[in-house]
Amino acid sequence: MLPESMLPVRANTRSMATPPSGAGQPQHIRPASTPTPASAAKPAAKPAAAPAPAKAPLGPQPPKERILVTGAAGFIGSHLIPRLLAAGHPVSGMVRYERRASDSSKRRMVALEALQARFKDRLQLVQCDDGLAMNEVVARTRPEICIHLAGRSWIRESVAWPELYVEANYRTTVGLLNALHLSACRRLVFASTVMVYGKDAPLPYMEECLGSAPSSPYGASKLACEALVNTYHALHKTETVNLRLFAVYGPDMREDCVPHLIASAIMKGRPFTVFGDGSSMRDYVEVSDVLAAIEAACRGHESYAALNIGSGFGTTLMDLLRLLEKCFGKKTELAFKAANRGELPVAVPDISLAMEKLHWEPRVSIEAGMARLADWFKSPACPLNGNGAR
User: What is the pLDDT of residues 70-80, one digit of tens each?
Assistant: First the structure.
């Protein structure tokens, strides 16, 4: 059992005087003591003659501005683009056509091309392989908002080949920021990562408490990108938002992510490899909640140096394993190996700042989200079932 100070909470720990209740509950269950919003309290009685109070504004609605999405064929990008189109935005999706692309990337490209044929007037897919092409693409598409999702994100790979992350993350972001500035793009939303936090950062993670250093070159490259984004805001007054995404999961997620690896092992009847003792804890946040946060970050004109985007609750690896076994109705064998270098033992955020600033709240519980993921694995859309058609 983790010490009480490490238990996951959604409450605003910036102003907490006492530890949150909820110790002893399963790590993936929301504490019953989560504060009730003030808006849910029963209003006081008013004199009959008093006028009815005005309804609170719903907040700014997303303008139908031109949006550029980098990493369009990635897991998050391929889920985001249909939502932006449904909201009425003209969208440009930046992609790379690589012969060595993963099967999932190829499937998503096919799906995006079909979507392009359907929305010919509002969706264009643009190829970008280098800095020169970046300038041309941005000048041609003239985005008013850019959602920057592209980059590499394999922790173990970054430990072995850190130079790949200087190129794919840092230099690509430098080129994009310069191109966006030259084209007078109004707003940039950057997808950063939980891995910017160091192993010595206090828990739950708060945006202003990073710790001494990221635990991997991947995290370091993303933190450098955050600094660049904030520099362009200070230097050129570009509106910018850095979103620190925690462990995003959902249908058609990347094959190397833990929920996919567990589900695949269960489906194939193969052992699942546990690196460490299974006590590592992550905040697993369903992709639809992340999309809602990204859309919220596109609204308004305020800039934010960093916002944590997660569910607000942690789940140990062993709890996640048992939950997915329950969703599939079958068990899997386990094989234990030493923990990987560069991994964080516990990664649970305080998300109160994002909830306050973006007027956003995650809505999908870990139980409902993993059930949805299991349903996708059992469906014809999953390549493990044959055709992998979407």
Answer: 999 999 999 99
Residue 190: closest CA among 232, 148, 134, 244: 148
Distance CA 124, CA 330 (A): 43
| 292: pLDDT strictly greater than 70 | yes
What single letter denotes the amino acid at residue 387? Answer: N
Domain coordinates in residue numbering, the chain: 67-247+286-310+348-364
Report, as an integer, the average pLDDT of 22-44: 34
| Cα distance between residue 252 and residue 255, in whole Å | 8
- CA 328 remoteness from chain centre: 25
pLDDT at 60: 55
Q: Crossing angle of helices 131-141/172-182, nearest 10°? A: 30
Angle between helices 172-182 and 217-236 (to 10 degrees): 20
Q: What is the pLDDT of residues 206-262, one digit of tens each?
A: 999 999 999 999 999 999 999 999 999 999 999 999 999 999 999 999 998 999 999
- Element (H or E) spanning 192, and its range? strand 187-193
Q: What is the CATH number of domain 67-247+286-310+348-364?
A: 3.40.50.720
Measured in degrees and rounded to the nearest 5, phi and psi for residue 244 equal -90, 100
Structure-derived torsion over alpha carbons of residues 164, 173, 295, 111, reported in degrees to the nearest 10: -50
| Tally: H helices and E strands in the chain | 12, 14
CA-to-CA distance for 100 and 379, rounded, in angstroms?
Answer: 26
The residue type of 109 is M
In whole angstroms, give the CA distance from residue 199 to residue 342.
Answer: 9
